[in-house]
Amino acid sequence: MSSVGFVGLGCMGSHMARNLLKRGRQVVAFDVDPKRAAELKADGAEIVKHPADVAAATKELVTMLPNSAIVRSVYKESNGILATIRAGSLCIDSSTIDQSASIEIASLVAEKQSAYVDAPVSGGVGGAQAGTLTFMVGGDQPHFDQAKPLLELMGKTVVHCGAVGTGQAAKICNNMLLGIQMIGVAEAMNLGIKMGLDPKLLASIINTSSGRCWSSDTYNPVPNVIEGIPPSKNYVGGFGTTLMTKDLGLAQTASTEAKAPTPLGSLAHQLYQILSKHPDFKDKDFGVVYQFLKNN
Ligand code: NAD
């Protein structure tokens, strides 16, 4: 079986590439960080010097990169994927980026007689490691059908959302709602505790009442309400305030382009911008918004 190309071996991509190796695929990979590349080499991947080398060696390519600007450069720079991509290749971008960036790259890839799908994920680092990610895929039906078996080596659920860019739309809407919900739960928990309620009791009432949501029953931001999650481990690990700020920013761009008002999404973006610059909160899990509200 031919090799899979992988660019971006960070918190998510390293686990995803490792799952491809574990499930019998050979991997040709690149990351700008030599330490990340060396770690995957130790697990059996072939490491190359540029994204162009990945595209020259493989016809199925996965990218898992931090933001739109970096995805654009990995495709478009002189040593990028588009420089060497072979006709008939399939490109899967699992980064969370602007819908417009996905659509632009898809058309550049089409000019090379190749296919592109956007396939952002939910499930976090734990899901990437366990191979249980959910992929939200945008692309033509035949390209989705082609991508699905590969995605199933890295995830449990693969959903076709529609044309190119709709995977990003689904991801951006979900994460905007997540940010709003987390702030709402943090506000309610802080208020209730300051009104004299026991945190675990308040959480259990919310979780059997109409205020229940993922941020209250699975990822409660108050320390020790739920053991083992980042809020109970000084907000270390998990989903950082910087990534949440980025995703809420993508929602704001989308809201402007689609002319769909998102007043709470906008407020959530402003709050997480403050957190992502604050020395006490910038490197912490996004549940830390509870500490910000508690102390202000
Ligand atoms: P990360 O910062 O840990 O990893 C990104 C990797 O890309 C790093 O190893 C970095 O060295 C590499 N990189 C940067 N520029 C590069 C370039 N020009 N060429 C090659 N490699 C380059 O980020 P992550 O947590 O793995 O997230 C990746 C994407 O997945 C982001 O878009 C993020 O929003 C999304 N995401 C993350 C999570 C999460 O919980 N971390 C969950 C869902 C989605």
TrEMBL record:
<keyword id="KW-0101">Branched-chain amino acid catabolism</keyword>
<dbReference type="InterPro" id="IPR015815">
    <property type="entry name" value="HIBADH-related"/>
</dbReference>
<dbReference type="InterPro" id="IPR008927">
    <property type="entry name" value="6-PGluconate_DH-like_C_sf"/>
</dbReference>
<dbReference type="GO" id="GO:0050661">
    <property type="term" value="F:NADP binding"/>
</dbReference>
<protein>
    <recommendedName>
        <fullName>3-hydroxyisobutyrate dehydrogenase</fullName>
        <ecNumber>1.1.1.31</ecNumber>
    </recommendedName>
</protein>
<dbReference type="GO" id="GO:0005739">
    <property type="term" value="C:mitochondrion"/>
</dbReference>
<dbReference type="InterPro" id="IPR011548">
    <property type="entry name" value="HIBADH"/>
</dbReference>
<dbReference type="Pfam" id="PF03446">
    <property type="entry name" value="NAD_binding_2"/>
</dbReference>
<keyword id="KW-0520">NAD</keyword>
<feature type="domain" description="3-hydroxyisobutyrate dehydrogenase-like NAD-binding">
    <location>
        <begin position="165"/>
        <end position="290"/>
    </location>
</feature>
<dbReference type="InterPro" id="IPR036291">
    <property type="entry name" value="NAD(P)-bd_dom_sf"/>
</dbReference>
<dbReference type="Pfam" id="PF14833">
    <property type="entry name" value="NAD_binding_11"/>
</dbReference>
<keyword id="KW-0560">Oxidoreductase</keyword>
<dbReference type="InterPro" id="IPR013328">
    <property type="entry name" value="6PGD_dom2"/>
</dbReference>
<dbReference type="InterPro" id="IPR006115">
    <property type="entry name" value="6PGDH_NADP-bd"/>
</dbReference>
<dbReference type="InterPro" id="IPR029154">
    <property type="entry name" value="HIBADH-like_NADP-bd"/>
</dbReference>
<dbReference type="GO" id="GO:0051287">
    <property type="term" value="F:NAD binding"/>
</dbReference>
<dbReference type="InterPro" id="IPR002204">
    <property type="entry name" value="3-OH-isobutyrate_DH-rel_CS"/>
</dbReference>
<comment type="pathway">
    <text>Amino-acid degradation; L-valine degradation.</text>
</comment>
<comment type="similarity">
    <text>Belongs to the HIBADH-related family. 3-hydroxyisobutyrate dehydrogenase subfamily.</text>
</comment>
<feature type="active site">
    <location>
        <position position="171"/>
    </location>
</feature>
<feature type="domain" description="6-phosphogluconate dehydrogenase NADP-binding">
    <location>
        <begin position="4"/>
        <end position="162"/>
    </location>
</feature>
<dbReference type="GO" id="GO:0008442">
    <property type="term" value="F:3-hydroxyisobutyrate dehydrogenase activity"/>
</dbReference>
<dbReference type="GO" id="GO:0006574">
    <property type="term" value="P:L-valine catabolic process"/>
</dbReference>
